[in-house]
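Posted in: Protein Modeling Q&A

I'm a second-year student putting together a small comparison for a lab meeting, and my supervisor asked me to include a predicted structure for ABC transporter permease. I've never done this before, so apologies if this is the wrong subforum. The sequence is pasted below exactly as I got it from our records. If anyone can share the structure token output, I'd also love a short note on what stands out.
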Amino acid sequence: MAKNPMPGAGPRPVDVRYAETWLLMHRLGDGPPTPLLTARLAVRQRVRLFGSVLQAVLIPGAALALAFGGSRSHRPTLVLALSALVVALVLARALLDAWIRRVDRQAGAALARRAAHLVQPDWRALLGRPHAVLVAGSFAGAFALGASSLAVGEGTARYAAVVVLVAVVGVGIGEALQLRELLARPVVAEDEVSLTADVIMRIEDARESTTPTVLWSLPVVLLFGSAPGWWNAASVGFVVLGMLALITVRFRTPGAAAMARDVVGTR
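Accepted answer (user: helix_wrangler)
Welcome! Here is the predicted structure, written out as tokens:
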């Protein structure tokens, strides 16, 4: 890949090594990565790490709300506090996405030329139908578990169901906003290789951000021991079925590199 200057200081050695590994893994050549590609991959690696931390905050935050929600008079306040936490996490996710867009804009401004074949993948290319079905089914299952506990539970179980539903809605809003941004994000590429790399990064971003691990975990963490036995069994079964479905989807859905080459037409 030809070299492209990027504004600011040069890339860190650890970022260069990560970019080299990424190129080899996706069979995009064995040459040194450009500063442009290195910067784009480095920010995605950091955003992926911070995004995992943000999602993980939902579970202990919701568990704390349940632990301190024993007093009926405190429950409305704690539900509002959890709602504020979810809103804060969605806003933080939006700031991380803005960080990626800013780096991509800088990379685009540094391009001496742009690829003539401008590609704008749709949601089928980004996720693949099996992964989209998995995500939709996970949201439906998590919401159904929360709604069922709200309908038949009492006391703490009903309060915890509200917590689950708030968290599920928050995760859904965050993922919908991110997918919308990925669909609208302009392509940053100057040749066939960098165009393929751009589409691969877009697909990886979409699939990573919509993997429903938090949706599987929330019902078990919040309601285990405070809901009827049938509900506890259903929540554990939800996790097991979700993991099995994810493994199946990973085998049935083409990898990001294969999907990107189909989109770009370089097979």
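A couple of things worth pointing out for your meeting: DSSP finds ten helices and no strands in the chain. Residues 13-264 form one domain.
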